[in-house]
Write a structure and sequence with these properties.
It comes from Littorina saxatilis. By secondary structure, the chain is mostly helical. It has 6 helices and 2 strands.
C-alpha cells in the first residue's frame, strides 16, 4: 500500500506503508512528517480530507489532529468517488500499467509509482480538486 496527499499547490511524497496501518502509525509516519508540514505550507485555510478509514479516525489521531490545529473536512462514509485522491490513484494506476514489461520486483514498482506520482501534471490535480464542488452537487 502507498499513501499520498494532493493539493492545488503541492503534493506530498508517495509513502510506502509496510504492513497494517494503525492509527498510531498513521499519526507517526504520515500525519506528523508529511501532512502537517504540507498543511502548514498551504496556510490557515488548508483542509485535510481523508476517507474515514479506521486508522484515520482513531482516538489518538483525533487528539493529534485537534492538538495540531488541523482543519478536517467532515466527510460521509462510503463516498470514495467524491474524494479527488481516488481519481489520482486511478491515474497513477493507468500510468504505471503503461510500463512494459511489468515491474520485476517491489522495489521497481515503488520506483515507478514515485516517478509517475511526480509526473502527474499539476493541472490534472487542480482539475480534480476544483471539480469537487460539482461532484458534491450531483
Amino acid at each position: 500500500m502507498v499513501w499520498g496527499g494532493i493539493g492545488t499547490r503541492l503534493r506530498t511524497p508517495l509513502y510506502h506503508v509496510v504492513g497494517n496501518l494503525t492509527g498510531v502509525r498513521y499519526q507517526n509516519e504520515i500525519l506528523q512528517p508529511l501532512v502537517v508540514p504540507a498543511l502548514q505550507a498551504i496556510g490557515p485555510c488548508a483542509i485535510l480530507q481523508d476517507d474515514n478509514a479506521p486508522p484515520h479516525r482513531s482516538a489518538a489521531v483525533n487528539t493529534f489532529i485537534q492538538q495540531a490545529r488541523v482543519n478536517r473536512m467532515l466527510w460521509p462514509a462510503n463516498s470514495p468517488d467524491l474524494n479527488p485522491i481516488e481519481h489520482m490513484w486511478d491515474e497513477l494506476c493507468r500510468r504505471v500499467k503503461q510500463h512494459h514489461p511489468p515491474p520485476a520486483n517491489l522495489g521497481q514498482l515503488l520506483q515507478w509509482l514515485q516517478q509517475e506520482w511526480n509526473g502527474v501534471p499539476r493541472a490534472f490535480i487542480c482539475n480534480l480538486i476544483h471539480s469537487m464542488h460539482q461532484r458534491c452537487v450531483e
